[in-house]
Design brief:
Mean pLDDT: 96
Number of helices: 0
Order of helices and strands: EEEEEEEEEEE
Strand content: over 45%
Radius of gyration: 13 Å
Length: about 130
């Protein structure tokens, strides 16, 4: 069974850093475009960052530019979200997702993704 498993979340002070990992298993996601979304309490799931199947094309939402970076490691079957200068408004559950169609594109809409992880909580204290 195909799985995406996020890890690396936790409680961090404002200005701190975290690296979220998304481990894939069950089938190869190496040809999938991948994305990170987040959902804050009382809000909908929002696109944060995405990258193409090769990792050559990446995109992050305006609110995290210069602070978040998305990468992938095909050898480890993993995708990462590197987060620095975290702010309290970054507090959310972060989800990893995989899109099988148009693998060279950045998919910013959650409906374009086929597989989702269970999420990992990131809490940034002020």
């Amino acid at each position: 069974q195909a799985q995406l498993v996020e890890s690396g979340g936790g409680l961090v002070q404002s200005g701190g850093s975290l690296i979220l990992s998304c481990a894939t298993s069950g089938r190869s996601f190496s040809n999938y475009a991948m994305g990170w979304f987040r959902q804050a309490p009382g809000k909908g799931r929002q696109f944060v960052a995405g990258l193409s199947w090769s990792g050559a094309i990446t995109n992050v939402v305006d609110g995290v530019k210069g602070r978040f970076t998305v990468t992938r490691d095909h050898d480890k079957n993993a995708v990462y979200l590197h987060m620095i200068s975290l702010r309290p408004k970054d507090t959310a559950v972060y989800y990893c997702a995989a899109a099988s169609r148009n693998r060279n594109a950045i998919h910013k809409i959650s409906e374009e993704y086929n597989d989702w992880g269970q999420g990992t909580q990131v809490t940034v204290s002020s």
